[in-house]
Amino acid sequence: MAANGTSGSLPVISALETLTATTTTPATIAVAVVVGLLLLLHSLSPRVDAREPPVVKPRIPFIGHALGMMRQQAQYHVALQRATGKPIATLPMLTGKMYAVWDPHLIAAGLRNKALSTTPHMKAVTPAVTGLSAPMVDMLGSPAGDHLVDRIMLHAIPPSFKGASAQHLTTTALAGLARELSALARPEKPPTPAAAAAATTTIPNTWLWLRHLLTATTGPALYGPADPFAQH
């Protein structure tokens, strides 16, 4: 129970109730709302330890970094590194935070660190991008999921990229790449200027085009006829 006979409500709500009870002028209400929002944002912001990388705050509090990555995708990290010049940074986003590492030496050190694990992210993303069955998704989410992922990464995937399997994978992927690139080829000597203009292919976003190119050519090689990426 709180002091003075008040209920144990949130500090923000208590402050708003006190200000509202004192006076109800529009200016006071506006100030109370602003103060309440600032206190709410502060209480929801992630805490950063002094040992963590330096914080790069977004231009728009609370949601700035998330919006930037949604709009610019991978290019956002490039723009952020150029703007800050930092080798590593902590990016507060919503109620969590993300570490962005740009320095190659720090990236290599992080990958060598045994405490760094990508398994939780793989377990979260895999069902959405591979079309796994419901029982398989439940198995990944079980206590044995981490061990299953580790065994797949260490014992199932490496043999698939050796010998005849690697040759088949490469041949299939290169055949798909050849088909995609051949679709962009223009006639050597278009009969008319109009035909030449019509034969010109414009790629507005090189990154998206390369993403499509790699997905469209490696997906069938990896998954065969059941390629989940071909459905999108």
UniProtKB/TrEMBL annotation:
SUPFAM superfamilies hit by this protein: Cytochrome P450
What are the protein's UniProt keywords?
Membrane, Transmembrane, Transmembrane helix
Spell out the InterPro entries in the cross-references.
CYP450_monoxygenase_sec-met (IPR053007), Cyt_P450_sf (IPR036396)
Look up the domain of life of the source.
Eukaryota
Q: Which residues cross the membrane?
A: 20-41
Q: Does the keyword Protein transport apply?
A: no
Q: What is this protein called?
A: Uncharacterized protein
Which Gene Ontology molecular-function terms are recorded? heme binding; iron ion binding; monooxygenase activity; oxidoreductase activity, acting on paired donors, with incorporation or reduction of molecular oxygen
